[in-house]
């Protein structure tokens, strides 16, 4: 993360977009009990953990150049991009990782996909 990126790290916008993505996941039919799709739950958990990590950032430390805080901010941005890549991937790798047969893919839908794309562009 460069010095310019430090100045542009908009924690409020990232927080807002992460909340939007999590809300979209919670509303998705494949996240409704009793048959929650394991891959959807994995992605929800991944994004939720990213959101929790964001909430630990001390913006004053980030602006002061604290190495650990800078690494955390960089990790959050990378996780947001990776989440979008995973949702767009149709190879079946994530299904295999979550123990779901390739014959049971999940359709994240336009709402989740577009919100993750907006998040990944930050």
Question: What does this protein structure show overall?
Answer:
- It is a single chain.
- By secondary structure, the chain is an all-alpha fold.
- The protein has one domain.
- The protein has 7 helices and no strands.
- Helix 2 runs antiparallel to helix 3, helix 2 runs antiparallel to helix 7 and helix 5 runs antiparallel to helix 7.
- The radius of gyration is 15 Å and the shape is elongated.
- The model has no long low-confidence stretch (mean pLDDT 93).
Summarize the helices and strands and which ones pair or pack.
Layout: H1 3-8, H2 11-27, H3 38-54, H4 59-63, H5 67-88, H6 93-97, H7 109-120
N-to-C span: 13 Å
Q: Work out the count of structural domains.
A: 1
Q: What would the average pLDDT be, to the nearest integer?
A: 93
The profile of the biggest β sheet is: none
The helix/strand order is: HHHHHHH
Level of helix content?
Answer: 55-70%
**What general form does the structure show?**
elongated
How much of the sequence is in beta strands?
Answer: under 5%
Tally the helices: what do you get?
Answer: 7
Low-confidence stretches: none
Rg over alpha carbons:
15 Å
| Assembly state of the chains shown | single chain
Give the helix/strand class. mainly alpha
Number of strands: 0
Question: In summary, what is this structure?
Answer:
This protein is mainly alpha-helical. It is built from seven helices and no strands. The two termini are about 15 Å apart.
